[in-house]
Amino acid sequence: MSSYYVIVNTPGVPVCEIAVLNAVDDATAREEAKQLARRWPGFETIALYDGERSVSVLANPHLGFADQPLDFYSQAA
User: What top-level branch of life does the organism fall under (predicted)?
Assistant: First the structure.
């Protein structure tokens, strides 16, 4: 049994919110986290976990975070 959950960080709020997701695998959990992000205005980051294993982190592009991962290695000299 998987135990997917997210930790939601909000700017200026010292306490994080935790939400449990209804997912059976990483792909489904990522989609659930994206849907949660659409419904959670003003979030800073949403960290997705399966138990203690970190799965992914979403950052709010409206706060200046990049919405796609930066690709430094393909541009290295």
Answer: Bacteria
